[in-house]
Design a protein that fits this description.
By secondary structure, the protein is α/β, with parallel strands linked by helices. Helices cover 59% and strands 6% of the residues. The chain is elongated and about 85 Å long. The termini are far apart.
């Protein structure tokens, strides 16, 4: 006895055409204007890692970001082939979004009707969390796609009762964990689903399914044990060294809204209403396919719950994007909620409302400052590139919250600072397992003497500070004492770019 709906009733062409169309649509939604927003600090870390020689990259990830080793290695190869343009580095995530939407359609089609499957794939394409990750040089769109296809494999394996399908599932599960260790909790989603799915109550084939799942899961965890161990050791060491926790502040919003709806309050409100309606008709099997609801609920709740519990036991870990791979589960629940209405026009109206609710957030995500809470690294780098002369000095602030530091512009767009003198640089942090360099700071009393010596050798210096941390009177007095005068001041989204010149530096300007 298989779990769920028999897709054989579908037209043969729709079985391959529907996923292809859904995947292409999600790809187009994901890649549209993906090149417009500036990189932000997390994407800068991807680029820094990808630029390292492969040996150095592997050494580095044993000290920092071990959880992303596989992704960084993949991006190392990708950028080697296709370069570091904004579109190129974000294209893998858009491709993953397309693969995820196609896979979700296949998955839901195995459990219920074609209409619900197509709708779930459509929601996948426009869900705010997934449209955000689809245009970002980070691994989270990939984790969502891997979760979808691993779930497809476990359903196919449970249906076919073939050892080779269980081998395929074990391989897919191992890929999930290797790419992103927190995805290990997907084994709970699959295991509990196989145990509680409605078809299991008829018990035929239940033992074989659970045995196949157990063996495949055990093999996958055994194969990926070195990866899991490396990540655990790295995090334990960093926490022991007093390294800042990776978790963000835990609020009801960050737990119940951001993992699926990102910053879209309208989408979240509409989604919450649909989930409440879904809950009121759970007993009506004619309108609520139990297998889909069960899988969606497990997929949404278990990853977040596990991460919150681990954070309570060890150290704060939770961030909304770390459970982005649970977003397909929300797509399942919303699709079932919409298709459960007896009047078709109600379902059509709700679909239109969901799409409309996604548009404002989608547009904001594709603006030049649409990432990282208003990252302006591209604007800073472009302005300096356009205005600076070869040999000019540049002093990029590296204090405050990492994600807002102007020096991140140098890590994200190093080619735009080519030919300029990075006077603050002391040493690279890569060898010490850090993405940030050791630098001299203008407002650090211990650094001022050496920095003054370096500035004395230049006639023009570009200084970039955050707008909330502009140059102080002491900073200006130091620069004036070295013979500099403020010749230019330009504001970007959240930064200020100053040009200080000596009289001889004005020539030819």
């Amino acid at each position: 006895m298989s779990i769920g709906h028999d897709p054989a009733v579908a037209h043969p062409r729709s079985r391959w055409l529907d996923p292809v169309v859904a995947g292409l649509a999600a790809l187009l939604v994901g890649v549209a204007a993906a090149w417009v927003p500036s990189y932000w600090s997390d994407e800068a870390t991807t680029l820094q890692a990808a630029r390292l020689p492969l040996g150095s990259l592997l050494e580095f990830t044993h000290q920092r970001d071990a959880v992303h080793t596989a992704y960084y290695v993949a991006m190392h190869a990708w950028t080697g082939l296709f370069g570091e343009s904004t579109l190129s580095t974000r294209l893998p995530s858009a491709l993953a979004a397309g693969a995820g939407a196609a896979g979700l359609l296949v998955l839901v089609r195995m459990l219920t009707t074609r209409t619900t499957a197509v709708l779930a794939a459509g929601i996948y394409a426009v869900l705010p969390r997934l449209t955000l990750e689809a245009a970002e040089a980070r691994p989270y769109a990939l984790t969502a796609a891997l979760a979808v296809w691993a779930t497809v494999l476990v359903l196919v394996a449970s249906r076919r009762q073939s050892r080779w399908w269980w081998v395929a599932y074990g391989t897919g599960l191992a890929a999930c964990v290797a790419v992103f260790v927190p995805m290990v909790s997907i084994v709970l989603v699959h295991g509990v689903f196989l145990l509680l799915a409605p078809a299991q109550r008829r018990r035929r084939g239940a033992r074989h399914r659970l045995l196949g799942w157990s063996i495949s899961t055990g093999a996958a965890l055994l194969v990926t044990a070195p990866v899991i161990g490396t990540v655990i050791r790295e995090r334990t060491r960093l926490l022991g060294d007093g390294d800042p926790a990776t978790g963000s502040e835990i609020t009801w919003y960050s737990v119940l809204v951001e993992p699926w709806f990102a910053t879209s309050v309208a989408y979240a409100v509409l989604g919450a209403g649909l989930l409440i309606l879904l809950g009121t008709r759970l007993r009506d099997r004619s309108r609520t396919p139990g297998s889909v609801v069960l899988l969606g609920a497990l997929w949404v709740m278990l990853p977040t719950g596990v991460m919150l519990l681990v954070g309570l036991a060890i150290a704060p870990l939770f961030q909304a994007r770390l459970v982005a791979w649970s977003a397909p589960g929300m797509c399942l629940l919303l699709a079932v909620a919409i298709t459960g209405f007896r009047k078709r026009w109600v379902s059509i109206a709700l679909i239109a409302l969901l799409v409309a609710a996604s548009v404002p957030t989608y547009v904001l995500q594709r603006l030049p400052d649409g990432k990282g809470g208003g990252a302006d690294l591209a604007q800073v780098a472009s302005y300096v590139e356009q205005q600076a002369r070869p040999g000019d000095a540049v002093l990029l602030d590296a204090t405050g919250v990492v994600s807002t530091r102007p020096r991140q512009a140098l890590y994200a767009y190093p080619q735009r600072f080519a030919g300029l003198d990075d006077v603050a640089f002391v040493s690279s942090g890569i060898a010490a397992g850090r993405f940030t360099d050791e630098t001299l700071q203008l407002d650090d009393a211990d650094d001022r003497a050496e920095l003054s010596e370096r500035l004395a050798a230049t006639d023009r210096v570009w200084i970039v500070r955050r707008q909330v941390d502009v140059l102080t009177d002491d900073d200006r007095e130091l620069l004036e004492g070295l013979g500099f005068a403020n010749a230019q001041e330009h504001r970007t989204g959240r930064s200020v770019v100053y040009l200080f010149v000596k009289p001889e530096g004005r020539a030819g300007g």
